[in-house]
Amino acid sequence: MGLILKILIPLLGLLLAYYFYSAPEDFNEEMLRGKRVIVTGASTGIGEQMAYHLARMEAHLLLTARTEAKLQKVVKRCLELGAASARYVSGSMEDTKFPNVVVKEAENTWGGLDMLILNHIGYSYFNYFDGDVGHIRKILETNFLSYVAMTVSALPMLKESNGSIVVLSSMAGRIGSPFIAPYSSTKFALEGFFSSLRQEFIIEKVNVSITVCVLGYIDTENAMRAVSHVVRHKPAPKEECALEIIKSGALRQRELYYPRHTMGKMLLLHTIAPDFLDSLIRDNYKVENVKRP
Ligand SMILES: NC(=O)C1=CN([C@@H]2O[C@H](COP(=O)(O)OP(=O)(O)OC[C@H]3O[C@@H](n4cnc5c(N)ncnc54)[C@H](OP(=O)(O)O)[C@@H]3O)[C@@H](O)[C@H]2O)C=CC1
Ligand SMILES: CC(C)CCC[C@@H](C)[C@H]1CC[C@H]2[C@@H]3C(=O)C=C4C[C@@H](O)CC[C@]4(C)[C@H]3CC[C@]12C
């Protein structure tokens, strides 16, 4: 009994202190008004939806992806929705020079930057790991190294504005799932890099926030095309997901878990019963529908 009291009471105290200390500031759409924001991978999916929310909130937008025709349409829609300004620069993040080109465009147009949203991903197969090391190298360039390169180029402007970096990660960047070994490696890499950098910012009193978004299955066209015949779980809506990402970035939160309850349960299980969680994840896949090429 004594031991329980000795442990329980301080634990309760800690939980209460955490609850009150971390009570979130309210989000207000005006937080984004007039802010200068780069969104990568903005031609479709969650990136496109983030662009529309930001446009409604009257932000200045610089969008990027490879497909110019799609970007033109998204920019047009953003202007209709009320963006303070909207432009695009097209190119591939496989090209090591491109991250800097995008950031320079922001510098030349705005002379500064408030928020950098790193969201793009390159194509990767959804299947058993095929032993192709070259593919891992390529996908690391697109999904990881270009995020690092954009951060390096944008940091002087972000320091100047006390700005924010928002990084799109995944449950697959925290917990192993089958059939996505190359993709998963890039997300684990992002988590390592940005959580280390956050520590350094705190030590050096750099007032640039880093928000890592840990997402579950979201109903974007590309994700559904890739996995809906295999994954049993129902995907969450991309529009709501995009809004939650913007809110967490504006509130300078360290992490976002979306959808919140699924992610919360999975991360708890990962800590206390990892083998059980792995088996739950496997049960969630119709493995018979994954055909080796
Ligand atoms: N959807 C999901 O279930 C989940 C998604 N996430 C994360 O959310 C983010 C967005 O995902 P989602 O919206 O589904 O992704 P999509 O596949 O819908 O969009 C990817 C974007 O990246 C762009 N892109 C692709 N290749 C390149 C390239 N080589 N260089 C530059 N841009 C490129 C695409 O445009 P274009 O082809 O024109 O270049 C597109 O705009 C990603 O970081 C993803 O990892 C995390 C967990 C789950
Ligand atoms: C156990 C269940 C409650 C939850 C399982 C959630 C699993 C199925 C979810 C969580 C993260 C999801 C992947 C992801 O992060 C991003 C992409 C990129 C896209 O282009 C193709 C689909 C893919 C690989 C998703 C596939 C489904 C994943 C593994």
UniProtKB/TrEMBL annotation:
SUPFAM superfamilies: NAD(P)-binding Rossmann-fold domains (SSF51735). The keyword Calcium does not apply. It is an enzyme of class 1 (oxidoreductase). This is 11-beta-hydroxysteroid dehydrogenase 1. It catalyses: chenodeoxycholate + NADP(+) = 7-oxolithocholate + NADPH + H(+); an 11beta-hydroxysteroid + NADP(+) = an 11-oxosteroid + NADPH + H(+); 3beta,7alpha-dihydroxyandrost-5-en-17-one + NADP(+) = 3beta-hydroxy-5-androstene-7,17-dione + NADPH + H(+); glycochenodeoxycholate + NADP(+) = 7-oxoglycolithocholate + NADPH + H(+). It comes from the Eukaryota. InterPro entries: 11-beta-HSD (IPR051253), NAD(P)-bd_dom_sf (IPR036291), Sc_DH/Rdtase_CS (IPR020904), SDR_fam (IPR002347). Belongs to the short-chain dehydrogenases/reductases (SDR) family. It is a single-pass type II membrane protein. Its EC number is 1.1.1.146, 1.1.1.201. It is found in: Endoplasmic reticulum membrane.
